[in-house]
Amino acid sequence: MAPVKVGDKLPSVDLFEDSPANKVNICDLTAGKKVVLFAVPGAFTPGCSKTHLPGYVQNADKMKADGVGEIVCVSVNDPYVMAAWGAQHNTKGKIRMLADPSGNFIKALDLGTNLPPLGGFRSKRFSMVIEDSKVKDLNVEPDGTGLSCSLADKLKYKK
């Protein structure tokens, strides 16, 4: 299996928003629109909470004004953790906080990493621009966890 690359269609995987009862299929969510998706190693972790998520919250209105239909944050966490983390950072109406509790989406993208201090399997830190369920731009942090190319202000989402 090779990591996802520009031009690939997203895998059809269900993620969860707010609770295990609220499934969100990532292909359905991204069909027919431009979506910015970023993934983090863990909710409530320092780099994710102090830099990564806040950058997207601060840039959400500009991104949406520039034609981005949805902004999605994904983490290998449970949906309740993602909902609480989103509430703490005022993401409502700006960023969809989607949980990948078993890592099925991250595994399908082949962008996972083993981080024992965070519980084992987690997502590498990355961002992507998706148009009609296809990857148009992909930025994977070189070390999988750093904060450089996947930040909101580095994303190439404009045509």
How would you sum up this structure, described in words?
The protein is of the alpha/beta class and 159 residues long. The chain has one domain: Glutaredoxin (3-Layer(aba) Sandwich). Helix content is 26%, strand content 28%. The protein starts with 13 loop residues before the first strand and ends in a 19-residue tail after the last strand.
Task: Determine and state the CATH class.
Answer: Alpha Beta
Helical stretch tally: 4
Helix and strand string, N-terminal first?
EEHEHEHEHEEEE
Helix content: 25-40%
Task: Give the C-alpha Rg.
Answer: 14 Å
Strand content: 25-35%
Distance from N terminus to C terminus (CA atoms, Å) equals 30 Å
The largest sheet is:
5 strands, mixed
- The unreliable regions are none
- CATH H level: which superfamily? Glutaredoxin
Q: How is the largest sheet built, in terms of strand order?
A: 5-4-3-8-9
Number of domains: 1
The CATH topology label is Glutaredoxin
On the 0 to 100 scale, the average pLDDT is: 92
Please provide the count of β strands: 9
Shape: globular
| Reported CATH architecture | 3-Layer(aba) Sandwich
Briefly note the structural class of the backbone: alpha/beta
